[in-house]
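Question (not urgent): is this output format expected?
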Amino acid sequence: MKVFIAGGRGRVGSRLEDNLETKGIEVVSGGLEDGIDVISGKGLSEALVGVDTIVNVLNSPRFDAEGAISFFEGAIDNLTVEGERAGVRHHIVLSIVGVGEGDASEIGYYLGKVAQEKAVRSASIPATATTVTC
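Got this back:
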């Protein structure tokens, strides 16, 4: 199995990479430090060659609604387009438990996470939104 971690050099991605590699899973780290820009698409098609699963732990650099929504939806769109071309079979997205419920739904960053979940669930690659409690 080969896994691409979008955001693989970050706090969550680097720990996930270590964990998967100890289990014998081949990992491709996908971050700017690796020459891969998920938002612009630079290096993405090459990085996804032979990948079975995308694990998306990217985080938005903007926390306002417009910026967060644009970032998260753009990342899903690019990962889906290039993932389809590469034959990726599954896309996992890290999200937040209860995001979009109650008063939290008015927070710009959370609106971005809700948009991310909707985008990945409606994309052509089967997906899972894995949640964590903040």
